[in-house]
Each structure stands twice: as structure tokens, then as C-alpha cells.
Design a protein that fits this description.
The structure is a homodimer.
Chain A lengths: L2 H16 L2 H6 L20 H7 L4 H6 L1 H14 L5 E2 L6 H5 L4 E4 L3 E4 L6 H6 L5 H4 L1 H15 L5 E6 L1 H10 L7 H9 L1 H25 L3 E6 L7 H7 L1 H12 L5 E5 L6 H7 L3 E3 L6 H8 L4 E6 L8 H15 L5 E5 L9 H15 L2
Parallel strand pairs in A: 1-4, 4-5, 5-6, 6-7, 7-8, 8-9
Antiparallel strand pairs in A: 2-3
Helix pairs in contact in A: 5-9, 10-11, 10-12, 11-12, 12-14, 14-15, 17-18
């Protein structure tokens, strides 16, 4: 089409994006039906992704903007989702700090030189996201070009300082996070230095993603629920807040997500975020009562419900929507990432059901 | 001593036990200071236990009443604890049902023939605890003989139906319990049959332990926090309640413990128990407000706090006690089992501190 028509179409589409269900819900504005996206919606449960993984490792995909952008679009092409999330991982920021990251087949992420002492923490580089995470920023630009033509928003994301610290110190996943919590309790000065470095990077990284084109930002504090509320308040909350404060400079909505956070929901809210993401361990009505009207809520279907026959899945999805009770500012999502063995057919039906059931 | 003196001493001691801090706290009666015991207080962090484990496997110790009783007494001999808990494991009841149980070094429990279908569930034996768990009942009698001379109470315990189902179906520990929850969501009829069998056994087993001499009973629902409140209400709560109702026939206090239960605390209470055990993920004051005055509370120090230097440990223990605020019916404990690498010296100081700090 002629240049002027193209420019006009893009302006039109950027208005569409700004008025998309997802972004309106983030701002707690009225919408035609509840928006839905799924954490880890681009991933192993899709055959398109598995095919790509036969040729490339996870890190190769993340670090090749064309591939990361392609994977970002896979679920958008397959389902009627209301937002895309850039394909990346929460751990690459740690690489830029000097940690050696690897994904071990069947075992998840591994860091070969974990942080265990004040000296280790001192050695962590203070890096800029433009330098060490350029590939995700580039992938955001490419995915934006695709999404703009459809009027769909793109979410950027980062791990929260505590969750990054958990991986950096434990050296991988952990059942009880005893090593990272021990460091926090044993050497508070070193801990605060670590969290200072991490929260600066997380804030800058989120900000850079918004500048590259992300319409919203999610901060994942996946393991924060391992802490007591009082330890969270003292050793973590100031740093999550610092990261969110930096990211707020971008002027886009921020989703603050954690699991196992029912004992500290109010504190999470205090740390910041326009949207609070909750897992399935709490009734949405109770979560909203505790959080108050000033925030939107994202969640909270148990990812395992997607393994149920349709009837069981529908009942559980309906329960979540009934709990939200049509309140303005609900974004339907899972309570944690979609599981690798999830049947694709159920994802398709779930997304359609959320839209149909909530249509006004 | 002469027979009559001995009988008199035992009567005197059984009065001491009935008026022990621990049992009085279970009944929400006033006491001189807060009682303390620690989940998994007999175990790998003690050198006496590690020495015994050089000669015997876990299952050999559990199945030899003299050894189980000896291990039960190890922490009682070392620390000023207010109750003993019989040394056993939550999984042997599954063996009696026909599941092949093993403890794999470094990996925890493994069940070689896990339950995956309605047919598997149908084949599970309905066994009596006197027949298949005689060794723990015998160990309780032996430990009682030792404890009676000291005026200390003994706690018996069992896994709750859901937690046993989780092991039976998953075949071991699990990160997200997707297999057991899938079975629950996919084949509700089979699930209800499984839970019926398990809840009968759990109830009978608890009852038998009280008859053998346990002064209180704890039901461990360690993995129940993986469920949404609504799934708990429908698929689990009736069976936990059934098990507790059977056990109540013994007339001894029942402690109902779970982790990650902050979204369903009220439901746990509804399922039963004189004492509700909570993990460290909630402030004790908030937990008690939600649970109301009608129950005692057990908890809730983060087990990792025992790795901190004394100052950090003391601060966190004091926080728990300040949250309980001297309310009648607080039993100090960890929020989950003590970790194998815990320094013994910290355990000793913690127990002393709880008594000193709360002395009236």
C-alpha cells in the first residue's frame, strides 16, 4: 500500500493497541470481555516450538532476535490471545553480571559459578541491558512490527530481584531455597549489596524493554513465597520497589506476579505494580478484597486444570471468572506457567471460553 | 523401688504429663511458658541419629520398635523439649496397602508401583494398622515407658489423605504435583474411592496410636497447599475431616498441620483439629485472627532461620513469639521439618530461648 496509507494504518493500529482489552484491563477501564493470556504461552506444549527446539537450544533461540520473535508469535497465531509476551527467560540478566548459565536437559537452569559470599557478590558486574541483553530488546522490536499489524500488545518481563538472587545463589532450582535464605540471614550486608545490584539491573532492563516497544512489563517473583512476610518486608520489598520505581519511568502498566504470596499480598502491593498476579492458592474474590480496588488482578487458574477433560477445565475456569465477578481490571491467566505436557486443544477452548463467558 | 511406690510414681507422672505445658497448650489452658517441639526433631542433624544410620536404613529403624523408640528419645535427651514425637515416616501406611516403598539415597522416598488408574486404586488393600503398622504401635509403647518417667507427652502422627495420595500417585516427591492433581481432576470417581480408602486407614492408624499410648496426634497435610481452595473443599476436605473424626474417638488433642495453606486456613479449620499448624509464610497474628479463638496454633519459625547466627535466629524466634503475644494455646514449632544440616547448638539455644522469653 502507498506510504501514507501505511502510516495511517499503523496509527490506526497503535490506537487499537492502546484500546486493547489487555491494556484497558491493566488500567481498570471497562472492556467488552475479559482479556486472557497465559504465562509461558510460547513453549514446549506447542509442536511449532518443539520443532524449532530440534534445531536450537533455548539460549540460541533467546539470543537470536528473529527466532525469539518467531516463537513469541507462535501462540498468537494459534489462539485468540489478548497479548503476546516476548520469548526470553528470567536468567540471562545473570549472565551479563558474570554468572555462567546453562540449561541442563530435564533439570532446568544451572549456574556453574553460583554466588556464595560477599566477595562473589562484589565481583558481579554492573552491566547495562543495552549491552548484555541487546538480543531481547531487538526481539521486542521485531515482535512489535508483527503485532502492530494485528493491533495486539506485547509484554516485556524480568525476574524480580529476589527470584534472580535465588537462582544466582542456589545455582539452579531448589526445593526449600535454604542456601539463598541462609545467605540473607547470615550476612545481611552482603545480601543488601546483592539486592542493590540486582534491583538496579532489573529496573533498567524493564525500562529498556518498554523503550524498545513493550506495552506492559511483568516482574516475576516466582520464589518470593518461600519467605516469611517479615523477611520479605525487610530484605526484599525495598528492592522490588526500587526496580518497579525505575521501570515506572516508562509510563506503561506493570504487572507484579508471585506464587505462594498469600501471607504477604498486601506487602506485594505496597512494593508496586498496576496489576497484581496471584496463583491458584487463593480465591480471587478474597485476593481482591485484600488488595482493594486500586489495582487490577491477573490470574489464577491452576495450570494442572488444563489436563482435565473439558468439563472439569470449564468448571474451574468458570469458578475463576465467577470469583472475579465481572469486575473491571481482571486479566485471566494461569496461576503459574503453562506446563510442557498441556494439550493444545484445551488451550484453544479455554481462551475461547473466557471470551464467550465474559462477553457483555 | 517397692511396687507400690513405683505405681504411685507412675500415677504422679501421668498427672505431670496431663498437666504438661504441651498438652495444656493444646487445650488452650494457661501455662508457665510457651511449650516447644520441632517437626522432625529426631533426625539427621543429630550425630546420635547419623551414627545409628551407619548401621540401619530408615525403614529398618522405623520397623524395629526398640530402635524407633531410641531415636524418638535422642532429641529429648539432648534438648529441653516439651514433647516427643514417635520416630516414623508418613509413608509406611502405603506399604500396607500394597505399594512398594523405598528410600533412595539423596532423592527421598520412591514408590515403585505408583497408583495411576481406577484399577490400581481398586487393588489397594484395606488393611488394619494393627496388622501392617504394628511396629510403630509397639515403638509408641516403648517410648511411652521412657517418657512416663520424665512426665513428658508423646505425639503420634500420620500423613493426611491428600499427602498420602500425592506420594501414592506421583511415586515420590514432586515439584508441582501435576500427576496426582490430574488424576483428581480427570477421574473424580476413582479419586473419591482412593481418598475413601486412605481416610479410613489414616483415621484408624491415628486412633490405634492413641490407644497404644500417644497423648496427642498430628495429621501432616504437607502438600495440600498445592490445591486451589475450591479443589480442597470438594476433593480433599471431606476426607481429612473423616480421618480426624475417626481419630477423635481417642479423646486426645489433634494437631492439623499443612504448608502453603494461607488461602484455605478457614477450610483446614473446618476439617478439624484442636491445634492448627501453620508454616512461616503467614504472620501468626493474622493466622490467629483468621482462625479465631476456638483453636490453638502451632508454629511457625522458618526452618532456615536455624542456619542464621544466634542474633538473627533470636530476632526471628522473638518475632514469632511477639506475634503470638502470650496468647493461651500457642505451641512454638518450626513451619516445616527441621533441615538435615541444622547446627545442633542453635537448636539447643532456640529451645532455651522460647522458655526464657515467655516465662510468666
Amino acid at each position: 500500500m502507498p506510504v501514507n496509507d501505511k502510516a495511517e494504518a499503523l496509527t490506526h493500529n497503535s490506537l487499537l493497541v492502546e484500546n486493547s482489552r489487555f491494556l484497558r484491563a491493566c488500567r481498570r477501564q471497562a472492556i467488552d470481555c475479559t482479556p486472557v493470556w497465559l504465562m509461558r504461552q510460547a513453549g514446549r506444549y506447542m509442536k511449532e516450538y518443539r520443532q524449532l527446539r530440534e534445531c536450537y537450544t533455548i539460549l540460541e533461540i533467546i539470543k537470536t532476535p528473529e527466532l525469539a520473535s518467531e516463537v513469541t508469535m507462535q501462540p498468537i497465531n494459534a489462539f485468540d490471545l489478548d497479548a503476546a509476551i516476548i520469548f526470553a527467560d528470567i536468567l540471562p540478566p545473570l549472565e551479563g553480571m558474570g554468572l555462567e548459565l546453562d540449561f541442563v536437559k530435564g533439570e532446568g537452569p544451572a549456574i556453574h559459578n553460583p554466588v556464595r559470599s560477599a566477595a562473589d557478590i562484589e565481583r558481579l558486574h554492573e552491566t547495562s541491558p543495552e549491552e548484555s541483553l541487546w538480543f531481547t530488546l531487538e526481539a521486542i522490536k521485531l515482535a512489535r512490527a508483527e503485532l502492530d499489524t494485528r493491533g495486539l500488545p506485547l509484554i516485556g518481563f524480568s525476574g524480580a530481584p529476589f527470584t534472580l538472587a535465588a537462582y544466582a545463589v542456589e545455582g539452579g532450582g531448589s526445593r526449600n531455597h535454604a542456601v539463598v535464605k541462609s545467605l540473607m540471614m547470615t550476612d545481611p550486608a552482603a545480601w543488601h549489596r546483592l539486592m542493590e545490584k540486582l534491583s538496579n539491573l532489573v529496573g533498567q532492563y524493564l525500562l529498556a524493554q518498554a523503550k524498545a516497544g513493550a506495552h506492559a512489563l511483568q516482574i516475576f517473583d516466582s520464589w518470593v513465597g518461600q519467605l516469611s512476610p517479615d523477611d520479605y518486608r525487610q530484605f526484599v520489598m525495598p528492592y522490588t520497589r526500587h526496580a518497579i520505581d525505575i521501570a515506572r519511568g516508562a509510563g506503561v502498566p506493570i504487572i507484579h506476579f508471585g506464587t505462594d504470596t498469600n501471607g504477604m499480598l498486601e506487602l506485594l502491593r505496597e512494593a508496586g505494580g498496576d496489576v497484581i498476579g496471584v496463583d491458584w492458592r487463593i480465591d480471587l474474590r478474597e485476593a481482591w478484597t485484600r488488595l482493594g480496588d486500586g489495582v487490577a488482578i491477573q490470574g489464577n487458574l491452576d495450570p494442572v486444570a488444563l489436563f482435565a477433560p473439558w468439563d472439569g477445565l470449564r468448571t474451574r475456569a468458570q469458578y475463576v471468572l465467577d470469583q472475579a465477578d465481572g469486575r473491571v481490571g481482571h486479566i485471566f491467566n494461569l496461576g503459574h506457567g503453562i506446563l510442557p505436557e498441556t494439550p493444545v486443544e484445551n488451550v484453544k477452548r479455554l481462551v475461547e471460553f473466557v471470551h464467550e463467558y465474559t462477553a457483555v
